[in-house]
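FAQ

Q: What does a record look like?
A: Structure on top, sequence underneath. For example:
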């Protein structure tokens, strides 16, 4: 689909950052990520600005509202629009959250799917249908959550592995989400990380969060990445190899110059494991 391959360190493409990026894209930024729902059918000056960037830099799409685990029918019209958007902008990869965010309407949060065999088959079928429509594999992200699903027949790691296998899809590994869940539910983040199927990883996220209490972290993407999450990212590279990794910053967005050091830190960790570097390549 695209002449670009995705590698190195990336940053979320936000409207607030466009003026600074137009002036100069820092050399440490290798790719951008975009939420397609926020840009579909966008015309005018902003649409032209986006096109100017996607023609010159690699992008990936990270969906917000497909609700792979939700009870409502899969939004195939949205998927067809996303497919068209990806073709228009030469975006090689689409990812979504392994969670749900809809019932009769959008719930405006990402909620945990019950860890059951029935849910594995249900979600995997929706992922396979998504892949059929997009005509390519997608990646699903391990989600953060705050209340355990009411029914569980397996652990979260068993559920993730089962869905990836049943759907034959890729993994979008978010190391901050592992850390958040490990604090909220009291498990070993390193053991969880090591148990993930590295051969299915497409790319990674790291981000900051808000600690509401000693045993409660909220995944806000609104602060700097903390040292334990940086350590977990380094361990991910050591364990699974170096994959494209994006800094998420969706709230309290500072000037671009303040984000560059964190992107540079991703790149620095990657260089330490450079012989293991992987790239996402399509088309």
């Amino acid at each position: 689909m695209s002449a670009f391959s995705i590698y190195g360190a990336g940053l979320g493409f936000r409207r607030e950052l466009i003026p600074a990026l137009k002036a100069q894209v820092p050399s440490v930024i290798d790719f951008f990520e975009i939420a397609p729902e926020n840009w579909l059918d966008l015309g005018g000056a902003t649409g032209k600005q986006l096109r100017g960037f996607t023609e010159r830099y690699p992008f990936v799409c990270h969906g917000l509202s497909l609700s792979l685990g939700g009870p409502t029918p899969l939004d195939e019209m949205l998927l067809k629009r996303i497919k068209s958007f990806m073709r228009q902008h030469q975006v090689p990869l689409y990812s979504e959250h392994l969670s749900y965010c809809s019932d009769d309407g959008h719930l405006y949060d990402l909620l945990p799917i019950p860890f059951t065999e029935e849910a594995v088959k249900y979600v995997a079928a929706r992922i396979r249908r998504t892949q059929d429509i997009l005509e390519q594999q997608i990646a699903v992200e391990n989600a953060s959550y705050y209340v355990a699903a009411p029914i569980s027949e397996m652990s979260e790691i068993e559920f993730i592995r089962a869905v990836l296998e049943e759907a034959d899809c890729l993994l979008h590994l978010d190391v901050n989400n592992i850390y958040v869940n490990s604090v909220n539910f009291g498990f070993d983040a390193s053991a969880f990380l090591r148990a993930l199927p590295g051969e299915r990883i497409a790319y990674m996220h790291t981000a900051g969060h808000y600690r509401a209490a000693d045993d409660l972290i909220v995944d806000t993407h609104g602060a700097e990445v903390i040292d334990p999450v940086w350590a977990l990212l380094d361990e991910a590279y050591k364990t699974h190899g170096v994959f494209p990794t994006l800094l998420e910053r969706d709230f309290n967005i500072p000037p671009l110059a303040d984000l560059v050091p964190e992107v540079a830190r991703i790149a620095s960790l990657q260089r330490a494991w450079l012989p293991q570097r992987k790239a996402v390549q399509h088309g």
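Q: Is there anything notable about this one?
A: The chain has one domain: 5-281.
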